[in-house]
UniProtKB/TrEMBL annotation:
Descriptive protein name: Toll-like receptor 2
Membrane topology field: Single-pass type I membrane protein
Range of residues in the leader sequence: 1-32
GO cellular component entries: plasma membrane; receptor complex
Keyword Transmembrane found: yes
Keyword Transport: no
Length: 799
């Protein structure tokens, strides 16, 4: 719309403006118009943005949104409120392949609305309000294969064929409750249809030859109520339809059956009846017609009703069909099924059937005589019925179903597996048996089965464990949906095992089932499986372990992420394999999880940490030893202890002139020379010696500190022995801070022999400093100098 307006403006401006000017303006207006339409499309249908598929269904649209471009291939506008399709609506969508307009309110379509859609393959206009069909609509749809026109309000298809140009048409759905007439020529131009569906529930007039122009119809579906019109349609389709499906017709009156005799000449190979009505009176007539159909191979009755009890008044005495081999009956409603007879009149018609399906029809018994007449029956489906253990025993009587290979008894009322297996044990050709969704519960240890049984379905049968009742001849076993906690049966021939929806916590052992090719343990309680478990199944090609709560341990992750080719073996990998723990990765796909080194090698990391801690401690000990850290710690403790006491004892408590610190190796000089000289002086000095004056039993630290505090001076007799003596070091350790923290002259150093300050340990830093900065007394070896030494020492003690 915007584009048309822009083009009109171009034409006007072209007449009044110079060429370069109006061309530039024209380009600007085109771009602006396109941008405006694209914005409108994006607002009306957001999914169309940058996509080839536009899903605009159920958005309340009242018109086809503008801005559709050539890049769009699929446009879904179903379930909106569109009433009209205009010429320009789809003009730019030249590459459209599918156009879905069903369930709108369309009542008007411009004749050239679909003119640009030459590549369109599917057009759905069903369930709208079209009152007529125009051939012009479809005139340019050369590629159209699927056309849906049912559910509109047209009464006929026009005077000619609306579909004459649709040479590639494969599926055609048409009709409505208002369709009342089909005219000759309505289908001209159509030669082949894969499917033709006509809803003619109120069709009252059919012109002879209307469908005869179609040479081949693979599947014809017709919903009709008028038996006469139906017979006229069948007459035109005798040789063209392969599969005929009839819906919503009532075969209730015997007199109407004569009109259906035309079906006897039909080449239909498959005939389906859906939602039809049958009676005891019409069943024999229909059976007679079917027997005469020369190519009929399959008969299907779905969701039909039978009024009667099987007491057919006339014996079916017609030649037996040589082609009808398959019959399917589903959801057949027999209101008085409990009065139904034994079907003796049809016994003679059953001998050639190879496949019979009777589902959801309340069958509680198959008479033995019927079973014995099914001589060629290979496939029998009696699922979703009312068969019990005793009735099955009667139904599968001796001589019954002699050729049966596949039997489906699922969703019945069987409860004893021993009786069930015994009832079927004589079926020597039986290969496949489905007895799932019955309620067996506990199963015995020994059962008797058909000798050639290869497939057994015991899923959803409430069995808590499997026993040797399961036959060893099986190649396929399904025990899904039970309460199994383990599986250890010896089944050497088994190739496929299905254990879905059980309580297994680990894969079953491979030794009892060495030939398994496919294994399903989906939705169990499986936490992980190891490389050894996986590789023990040497012939495994498919493993379905999806939808379990996996513990994503390092070993499990390492295995599944690095095992070559595991992605081709695991069914549903990687989407269906999700971690349940650890908590940090819960919900993440197993293949995408990567745990840290600490999580994967916890013991190794702990060991490394322990080794590192030990090495650090060892290093600290070495450093402490080298740098005397222990000494500093001990001295700090002594200093703290000393700090608690007064720095200087009261005068009344000072009872010594000096505390003497000396080495035991120097005790002879101290005790025999120095003590005698000082304590016998006039006036005498009182010295504190550890040997003589320390209080016995008192902690040495307290003795040292108390002696220092009770002495005016501390006299250190220094020598090589002093420096090397552990005892002297111990004394100095606990007196060092007290002596030198006060920064006074309480210490007197006496060098008994020459000693270098470098020989003093570095930890006695203040002692070394005093020796380097203060005068000390040195004991002379010459006797004439000794008196001067004693004089100076006494002066130092009295200072």
């Amino acid at each position: 719309m915007h584009l048309i307006f822009a083009l009109t403006v171009f034409h006007i401006l072209g007449n009044i403006m110079t060429t370069p000017t109006w061309q530039a303006l024209a380009i600007y207006l085109v771009l602006a118009a396109n941008l405006s339409e694209q914005q409108a499309l994006k607002q009306a249908c957001p999914s169309c943005d940058a996509s080839q598929i536009c899903n605009c269904s159920s958005m309340g649209l009242a018109f086809i949104p503008p801005g559709l471009t050539a890049k769009i291939t699929v446009l879904n506008l179903a379930h909106n409120r569109i009433k009209r399709i205009q010429s320009q609506d789809l003009q730019q969508a030249v590459n459209l392949r599918a156009l879905q307009l069903q369930s709108n309110e369309i009542s008007s379509i411009d004749e050239d609305s679909f003119q640009s859609l030459a590549k369109l393959e599917l057009l759905d206009l069903s369930n709208n309000s079209l009152a007529h069909l125009s051939p012009v609509w479809f005139g340019h749809l050369f590629s159209l294969q699927h056309l849906y026109l049912q559910g509109n309000s047209y009464r006929d298809l026009g005077q000619s064929s609306p579909f004459s140009s649709l040479r590639n048409l494969s599926s055609l759905h048409l009709g409505s409750p208002q369709l009342s007439v089909i005219r000759q020529g309505n289908f001209e131009g159509i030669e082949f249809l894969h499917r033709l569906w006509i809803d003619g529930s109120n069709l009252s007039q059919y012109e002879e030859g209307s469908l005869k122009s179609i040479k081949e119809i693979n599947h014809m579906i017709i919903g009709i109520r008028n038996v006469t019109v139906f017979s006229e349609i069948v007459r035109d389709l005798l040789h063209s339809v392969t599969w005929l499906e009839v819906r919503r017709i009532a075969f209730g009156i015997t007199a109407e059956m004569q009109a259906l005799r035309v079906m006897s000449s039909s080449f239909v190979k498959k005939l389906s009846f859906r939602q039809i009505l049958l009676t005891d009176a019409t069943v024999p007539e229909i059976a007679s017609i079917l027997e005469d159909m020369p190519k009929l191979a399959e008969l299907e009755l779905v969701d039909c009703r039978l009024l009667g009890t099987g007491q057919w008044k006339m014996q079916i005495q017609v030649k037996q069909s040589q082609t009808l081999k398959v019959i399917t009956i589903e959801k057949l409603s027999i209101e008085e099924f409990y009065l139904f007879t034994d079907l003796q009149p049809v016994e003679g018609l059953l001998s050639l059937f190879t496949r019979i399906t009777v589902r959801e029809t309340k069958v509680f018994l198959v008479p033995c005589r019927i079973s014995q007449h099914l001589l060629l029956l290979e496939y029998l489906d009696l699922s979703a019925n009312l068969l019990g253990d005793q009735s099955l025993e009667h139904s599968a009587c001796q001589g019954g179903w002699p050729s049966l290979q596949t039997l489906n008894l699922s969703q019945n009322s069987l409860s004893d597996l021993e009786i069930t297996s015994k009832s079927l044990s004589h079926l020597g050709n039986l290969i496949v048996l489905d007895i799932s969704q019955n309620n067996f519960g506990e199963i015995p240890d020994v059962c008797k089965w058909p000798e050639n049984l290869k497939y057994l379905n015991l899923s959803s049968t409430q069995i808590p464990k499997v026993t040797s009742c399961i036959p060893a001849t099986l190649e396929v076993l399904d025990v899904s949906g039970n309460n199994l906690k383990e599986f250890g049966l010896q089944l050497p021939l088994l190739k496929e095992l299905y254990l879905t929806r059980n309580q297994l916590k680990a894969l079953p052992g491979a030794a009892p089932i060495p030939n398994v090719v496919a294994l399903s343990v989906r939705r169990n309680k499986l936490n992980s499986f190891s490389k050894e478990e996986f590789e023990s199944f040497r012939r495994m090609e498919l493993l379905d372990a999806s939808d379990n709560n996996f513990i994503c341990s390092c070993e499990f992750l390492s295995f599944v992420q690095h095992e070559a080719g595991i992605g081709q073996v695991l069914v549903g990998w990687p989407d269906k394999y999700v971690c349940d723990s650890p908590l940090a990765v819960r919900g993440a796909q197993v293949g995408a999880v990567h745990l840290s080194l600490l999580e994967c090698h916890r013991s190794l990391v702990v060991s490394l940490i322990c080794v590192l801690v030990f090495l650090v401690i060892l290093l600290l000990v070495a450093v402490g030893y080298k740098y005397h850290v222990v000494w500093y710690l001990r001295m700090t403790w002594a200093w703290l202890q000393a700090k608690r006491k007064p720095k200087r004892a009261p005068p009344k408590d000072v009872c010594y002139d000096a505390f003497v610190s000396y080495s035991e190796n120097d005790s002879d000089w101290v005790e025999n020379t120095m003590v005698r000289e000082l304590e016998q002086a006039c006036p005498p000095f009182r010295l504190c010696l550890h040997k003589r004056d320390f209080v016995p039993g008192k902690w040495i630290v307290d003795n040292i500190i108390d002696s220092i505090e009770k002495s005016h001076k501390t006299l250190f007799v220094l020598s090589e022995h002093f420096v090397q003596s552990e005892w002297c070091k111990y004394e100095l350790d606990f007196s060092h801070f007290r002596l030198f923290d006060e920064n006074n002259d309480a210490a007197i150093l006496v060098l008994l022999e020459p000693i270098q300050s470098k020989a003093i340990p570095k930890r006695f830093c203040k002692l070394r400093k005093i020796m380097n900065t203060k005068t000390y007394l040195e004991w002379p070896l010459e006797e004439d100098q000794q008196q001067i030494f004693w004089f100076n020492l006494k002066i130092a003690l009295r200072s």
